[in-house]
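pinging the channel bc i need a second pair of eyes. not urgent but kinda urgent?? the chain im working w is below, pasted from the shared doc
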Amino acid sequence: MKYITTIALALGFSVSVALAGEKTLTGKVVCAKCTAKKAEKCSPAFVSKGKDGKEVTLLVSGKAAKAIKHGRICKPNSSVEVTITGTIKEGTITAAKLTEKKK
């Protein structure tokens, strides 16, 4: 019993350390070149309101970034509402999970 408790605590600690750097944000995905004007070539960008109410734009990378087809966002003023979970570093969010909001 003592060993089972120790193993369960170790696994729980490992999971919490792995998820410590990830944040979940809600906003919209737009084209980084066509709409956000933040990149030289088309790629996804995440746009949301910051704590101060100003618009924050983060370039999206990672496997989950491919969840939304680029053709849906690569038009001026088009976007897709999403919830994104990932690690933010230097103006980029590495997406671990990206879920499209249903209208």
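so Residues 49 and 55 are 5 Å apart (CA to CA). and Residues 5-19 have pLDDT under 50 and may be disordered. — does that match what u expected or am i reading it wrong
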